[in-house]
């Protein structure tokens, strides 16, 4: 019996270790080692921090890095602000069929590829696009209006693309809040805003945190939306990584960039968890 | 703010209007993509030149429809193949993971659980490059040691599959573990009590109970694989899956052909999702 | 007469075609414990939610200390509610839970702390302020939920089956404690329940509710011994029930021939019942006297002889089932605990009797 248990354990733990070891841990360690390499001659390398130094010394790299971080935080905040009322409506206001229909409607856009969604925004926003045509038709503009290729367009696309990952965890946590608790809040003299502040938001915190983390990650690591909707000078950090790897073939610098992105995301995720008193297991698992 | 609390009309109307506005925002991009697939024009934009099926069935230049455009059809095939491999792999590993975390208490369990979750918080593009870097390290080492070129470790479908598998497995694990968590273990004990062996009990009782989650995980994994872009972009070789192929086309300029492909994708994934929901309901 | 704390007049609530509460009127005097007792779905929760402000009545008025509160939103009404599952705020500790309403009133912090401490003292849990909700036992949560309302000094406290989730022993204990808390706070309690023993033990006045209407309102003893309707007779306490035809009526006394052929004497207690109508007669098991010989029960005007078919031992509430020779239905009879019948067995011959005054008669089909 004991031996059988041991065997079962080994059989189950092996795939996990292989997966995590060969595809997650070792590749990231290797990426880190590569990022510490400096090419000193043909096929000759030395260990140094040269790649990180050039990251810090080159203003374009640092600027892009900061811009990506700030805009991802903004996109996350916007997604939360826009999504929360909708999630609350679906979880607490809508009933029965309307409720399941709305929930399903929320999911639909995310069953199709991000590429298709981005393509949709291009059709809407570009100079020859639908919005421009409508504005001209309505007489609000006398020439085609270009709404694509700027930071606002990136923001619209990022918020759109990650909405599901905010709304679904919010609905799940809000749904678990008993109506009687909200009624008790009113019964004891609470008003809408105070109940939102003291009861609803504290209860929804795990959902808010997990939604925010996922949305932040998706925005930070997004490549399609910034490149398709953004302008020439609205660089995204993932574009730098891509160009170092695929265009310049400078893997050492690319790996350093990748590692910086990983550090940034880890720090922000860890910080969010600490500040809100949540854990990764609780919010994600 | 729940229906049992009296509210002023103005607040109710404003709130409802907001929700309607939100769903318009959700629906708008997809609607225009779908509508312009039928525009009889070279570009997916106004003015409306009339209705046509050419972007699906057209046979000659300049309007070659999806069903006669070989590269796109091949890319769909590639995506489907990758998707099936990734789903099968990640559901298999997801199931063993779920059983491991559900049934065994061991040292390092907490650490392994957190590690299991980390792929969710690693940007997809970083996952892609780390696997790219590592596989080429291994391939170079193999070449240096025994002059053996392992083509599977060079950018291509195998790496795409591994790259997608590396994070989709986490999702599959969570979906399956959630259902396994609700499983009443006394059912298994009852099966043992009625004369089944351990494996038989799991096969005849636990796995059928898990079936909706297994199917759900498979479909979700397939959809995620099919629409994955970031990880795939870094690992792709000469055989491009659909999203990459469409991306390359889109960079050259958009034509309603892309709208037609997109519409097919929407219909396909909606059908798949509906099938999954039907399965979960049963 | 002093002004009632709570008065409902012609209160009605319709949901579409169904009438959940149908023209109910009642008054609750200050400091009293008022219960609404009824089966689930009878409309009692609807009444409570209308008083609290979570439902608007279709018709009628609700006045608290003489003022109509129909236009007052729930967060401004001078009533507070203990919810069925208590609805303690899991995101706050106990002190913050109790202080919630005080914070809404904008009281200064030191005053809130003082009041919370004082009320925790009164419910006998002085040191639990910093604990979390899930750390408390069922009975402690109960007391905290009441304290959370009482600290606001409401005119009326509403309690929505708050004991339902507790286990039997604790429920028995909390009944006594609730009554004591009500006396200590000297506040008007309106309590709804489907458990008759809760209502009977704690209340000054009980209203029995069925299908949206009040069947009877009165002291527990009146409901039990002098039910005014067949529903009350059947719902409150246990009864033996026979259906039959009224053969003769003489003042309050009447004679009934049951469908199974028994001749029974009962009383109509002022209700309209005449010869030839079909009626039900209700007799409580403890109103029936058990005897070894016919002589033991000779002084009763209803007498039956038969054999014991079952012994239902349940401590102080033990009973027997006996089958009379003349009829087929079994009769439930309370088993006296004096030891006199300790040797009774299945098949023993017994004689039973009760006074016709104990047989409450109602027109059939009036339930």
UniProtKB/TrEMBL annotation, chain A:
The organism's place on the tree of life at top rank: Bacteria
SUPFAM superfamilies associated with the record: MetI-like (SSF161098)
Keywords: Cell membrane, Membrane, Transmembrane, Transmembrane helix, Transport
GO cellular component: plasma membrane
Record GO biological process: transmembrane transport
Subcellular location field: Cell membrane
Principal subcellular localisation of the protein: membrane
Membrane spanning stretches: 7-26, 69-90, 102-124, 152-171, 207-229, 249-273
CDD domains: TM_PBP2
Membrane topology: Multi-pass membrane protein
Domain ABC transmembrane type-1: 65-272
PROSITE patterns: ABC_TM1
Family membership: Belongs to the binding-protein-dependent transport system permease family. CysTW subfamily.
Protein name per UniProt: Spermidine/putrescine transport system permease protein
Organism the protein comes from: Roseovarius tolerans
UniProtKB/TrEMBL annotation, chain B:
Database matches in PROSITE patterns: ABC_TM1
UniProt subcellular location: Cell membrane
Cellular component, GO, one term: plasma membrane
Keywords: Cell membrane, Membrane, Transmembrane, Transmembrane helix, Transport
Cited InterPro entries: Bact_Polyamine_Transport (IPR051789), MetI-like (IPR000515), MetI-like_sf (IPR035906)
A biological process from GO: transmembrane transport
One Pfam family it belongs to: BPD_transp_1
UniProt keyword annotation of Ribonucleoprotein present: no
Predominant localisation class: membrane
ABC transmembrane type-1 domain boundaries: 76-276
SUPFAM superfamilies registered for this protein in UniProt: MetI-like (SSF161098)
Topology versus the membrane: Multi-pass membrane protein
Transmembrane regions: 15-38, 80-100, 112-136, 156-178, 207-226, 257-279
PANTHER family: PUTRESCINE TRANSPORT SYSTEM PERMEASE PROTEIN POTI
Protein family per UniProt: Belongs to the binding-protein-dependent transport system permease family. CysTW subfamily.
Protein name: Spermidine/putrescine transport system permease protein
Native source species: Roseovarius tolerans
From TrEMBL, chain C:
PROSITE patterns named among the record's database cross-references: ABC_TRANSPORTER_1 (PS00211), ABC_TRANSPORTER_2 (PS50893)
Sequence intervals crossing the membrane: none
Pfam family, one: TOBE_2
UniProt cross-references to SMART domains, sorted A to Z: AAA
Gene3D superfamilies: 2.40.50.100, P-loop containing nucleotide triphosphate hydrolases (3.40.50.300)
Domain ABC transporter residue range list: 6-236
One MF annotation (Gene Ontology) recorded for this entry: transmembrane transporter activity
Domain of life: Bacteria
Keywords: ATP-binding, Nucleotide-binding, Transport
Gene Ontology biological-process entries: quaternary ammonium group transport
GO cellular component: ATP-binding cassette (ABC) transporter complex
PANTHER family xrefs: SPERMIDINE/PUTRESCINE IMPORT ATP-BINDING PROTEIN POTA (PTHR42781), SPERMIDINE_PUTRESCINE IMPORT ATP-BINDING PROTEIN POTA (PTHR42781:SF4)
UniProt-recorded name of the protein: Spermidine/putrescine transport system ATP-binding protein
């Amino acid at each position: 019996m004991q031996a059988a248990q041991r065997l079962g354990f080994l059989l189950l733990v092996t795939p996990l270790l292989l997966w995590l070891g060969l595809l997650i841990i070792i590749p990231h360690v290797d990426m880190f080692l590569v990022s510490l390499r400096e090419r000193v001659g043909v096929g000759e390398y030395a260990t140094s921090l040269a790649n990180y130094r050039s990251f810090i010394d080159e203003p374009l790299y640092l600027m892009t890095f900061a811009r990506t971080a700030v805009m991802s935080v903004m996109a996350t905040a916007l997604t939360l602000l826009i999504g929360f009322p909708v999630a609350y409506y679906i979880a607490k206001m809508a009933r029965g069929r309307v409720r399941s229909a709305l929930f399903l409607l929320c999911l639909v856009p995310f069953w199709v590829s991000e590429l298709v969604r981005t393509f949709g925004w291009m059709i809407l926003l570009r100079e020859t696009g639908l919005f421009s045509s409508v504005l001209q038709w309505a007489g609000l503009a006398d020439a085609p209006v270009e709404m694509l290729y700027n930071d606002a367009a990136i923001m619209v696309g990022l918020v759109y693309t990650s909405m599901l990952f905010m709304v679904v965890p919010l609905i799940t946590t809000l749904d678990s809040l008993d109506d009687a608790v909200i009624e008790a809040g009113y019964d004891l003299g609470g008003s809408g805003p105070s109940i939102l502040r003291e009861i609803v938001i504290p209860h929804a915190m795990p959902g808010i945190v997990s939604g925010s983390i996922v949305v932040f990650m998706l925005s930070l690591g997004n490549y399609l939306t910034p490149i398709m909707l953004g302008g020439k000078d609205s660089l995204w950090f993932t574009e730098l990584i891509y160009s170092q790897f695929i265009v310049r073939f400078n893997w050492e610098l690319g790996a350093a960039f990748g590692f910086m992105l990983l550090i940034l995301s880890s720090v922000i995720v860890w910080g969010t968890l600490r500040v809100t008193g949540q854990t990764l297991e609780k919010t994600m698992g | 703010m729940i229906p049992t609390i009296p509210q002023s009309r103005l607040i109710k109307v404003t709130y409802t209007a907001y929700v309607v506005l939100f769903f318009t925002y959700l629906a708008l991009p997809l609607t225009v993509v779908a509508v312009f697939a039928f525009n009889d024009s070279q570009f997916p934009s106004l003015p409306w030149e009339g209705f046509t099926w050419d972007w699906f069935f057209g046979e000659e230049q300049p309007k070659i429809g999806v069903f006669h455009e070989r590269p796109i059809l091949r890319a769909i095939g590639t995506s489907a193949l990758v998707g099936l491999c990734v789903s099968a792999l990640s559901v298999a590993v997801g199931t063993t993971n779920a059983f491991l975390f559900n049934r065994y208490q061991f040292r390092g369990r907490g650490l392994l659980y957190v590690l299991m979750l980390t792929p969710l918080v690693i940007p997809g593009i970083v996952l892609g490059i780390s696997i790219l870097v590592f596989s080429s390290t291994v391939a170079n080492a193999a070449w240096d040691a025994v002059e053996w070129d392992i083509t599977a470790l060079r950018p291509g479908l195998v790496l795409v599959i591994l790259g997608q598998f590396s994070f989709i497995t986490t999702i599959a694990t969570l979906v399956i573990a959630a259902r396994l968590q609700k499983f009443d273990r006394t059912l298994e004990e009852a099966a043992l009590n009625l004369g089944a062996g351990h494996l038989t009990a799991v096969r005849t009782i636990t796995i059928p109970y898990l079936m909706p989650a297994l199917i759900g995980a498979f479909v979700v994994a397939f959809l995620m694989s099919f629409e994955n872009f970031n990880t795939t972009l870094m690992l792709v070789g000469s055989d491009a899956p659909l999203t990459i192929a469409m991306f390359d086309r889109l960079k050259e300029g958009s034509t309603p052909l892309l709208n037609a492909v997109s519409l097919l994708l929407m219909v396909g994934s909606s059908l798949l999702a509906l099938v999954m929901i039907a399965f979960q309901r049963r | 007469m002093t002004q009632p704390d709570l008065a409902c007049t012609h209160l009605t609530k319709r949901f579409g075609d169904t009438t959940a509460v149908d023209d109910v009127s009642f008054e609750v005097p200050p400091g009293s414990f008022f219960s609404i007792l009824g089966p689930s779905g009878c409309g009692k929760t609807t009444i409570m939610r209308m008083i609290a402000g979570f439902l608007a009545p279709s018709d009628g008025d609700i006045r608290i200390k003489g003022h109509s509160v129909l236009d007052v939103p729930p967060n401004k009404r001078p009533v507070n509610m203990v919810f069925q599952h208590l609805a303690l705020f899991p995101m706050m500790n106990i002190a913050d839970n109790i202080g919630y309403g005080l914070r809404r009133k904008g009281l200064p912090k030191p005053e809130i702390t003082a009041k919370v401490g004082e009320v925790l003292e009164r419910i006998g849990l002085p040191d639990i302020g910093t604990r979390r909700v899930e750390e408390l036992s069922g009975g402690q949560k109960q007391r905290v939920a009441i304290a959370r309302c009482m600290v606001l000094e409401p005119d009326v406290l509403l309690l929505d089956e708050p004991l339902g989730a507790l286990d039997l022993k604790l429920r028995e204990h909390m009944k006594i404690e609730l009554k004591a808390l009500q006396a200590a706070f000297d506040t008007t309690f309106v309590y709804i329940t489907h458990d008759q023993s809760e209502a009977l033990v704690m209340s000054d006045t009980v209203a029995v509710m069925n299908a949206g209407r009040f069947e009877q309102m009165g002291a527990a003893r009146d409901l039990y011994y002098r039910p005014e309707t067949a529903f009350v007779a059947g719902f409150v306490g246990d009864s033996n029930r026979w259906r039959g035809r009224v053969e003769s009526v003489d003042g309050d006394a009447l004679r009934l021939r049951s469908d199974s052929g028994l001749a029974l004497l009962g009383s109509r207690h002022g209700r309209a019942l005449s010869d030839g109508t079909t009626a039900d007669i209700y007799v409580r098991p403890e109103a029936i006297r058990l005897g070894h010989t016919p002589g033991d029960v000779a002084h009763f005007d209803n007498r039956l002889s038969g054999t014991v078919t079952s012994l239902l031992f349940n401590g102080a509430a033990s009973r027997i089932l006996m089958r009379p020779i003349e009829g087929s239905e079994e009769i439930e009879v309370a088993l006296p605990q004096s030891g006199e019948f300790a040797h009774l067995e299945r098949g023993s011959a017994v004689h039973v009797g009760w006074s016709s005054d104990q047989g409450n008669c109602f027109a059939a089909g009036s339930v």
